[in-house]
Amino acid sequence: MALWRVLRNLRSDVLITTRPGIGVQAARHAPRDTIKIAREWSRPAVPGPVQRFYPRLSAVVTATESAQEEWSRLLGDGPVVHSVLDALPGGPWPRSRMDNRIVAAGGRWVPVKAYDRLIRSFAIVADKRPDWRLRLYGGGPEERRLRSLVRDLNLHNHVYFMGTTPDLAGEFAKASIVATTSRSEDLGMTVLEAMGCGVPVVAFEGAKGPREFVATGYNGVLVPESEGDLQLFAAALLALIDDERRRRSLAAGALDTAVRHSADEVAEQWEKLITDLR
Fold first, then answer.
1. Angle formed by the axes of helices 229-241 and 244-259, to 10°?
2. Each residue's pLDDT tens digit, 165-174
3. For residues 54 and 20, what is the distance between their CA atoms, to the nearest angstrom?
């Protein structure tokens, strides 16, 4: 009831919501002359209310082209679906020197992130290049299982659990490669943060987030999902480990990608969209 009162008495020119539950309420109760935009990242779990009420919105905005296509199919003749990139925070970003023998990964330690695949792949890397290390940043319910896996594979001198950090970008800047083995990553912000530090990314091509931003041979490597995916992922890591010139070339592409996600660039896209809607 409190939310409905706020929406009905809103005097803002533009209202942007960030989840379907709020977007539905905005469509139902916000004033008609307010520009109402739903900012979405993934398909709603319950599409019925969205399909019913989102046609009252001015626009829907996704962060990727694949999400734009998905939402366009979902809404049919509803509001126009636009795509505006996620923005990296402004300010100076730390820059990797690309000379540390470190592979880094960051995020929630949950099953969908598949850190077990990364650890098993790195076991192959550690056997061939024992001077390289894997640093895992974050925390979550999978920690005990992942630590047991490291112990079972005898990787205690190669894989390090770094815990959570308020400065993930600063930690990525200490690495020469950032790896992600997620099975389904919708946002891909970890990938963008790595690129903002000038670090190439190795990821599986089946995950939505990395697939949107990583281009093999330009800013990282996408590894195909297959029966021998762990071997392929390890091979991709080893190829970069053994080729410093290629790592530095991909790092330059990563920085170029990050520029397109700068706050100023993304703000211009939002301003143009809102101006057109008015």
1. 100
2. 999 999 999 9
3. 9
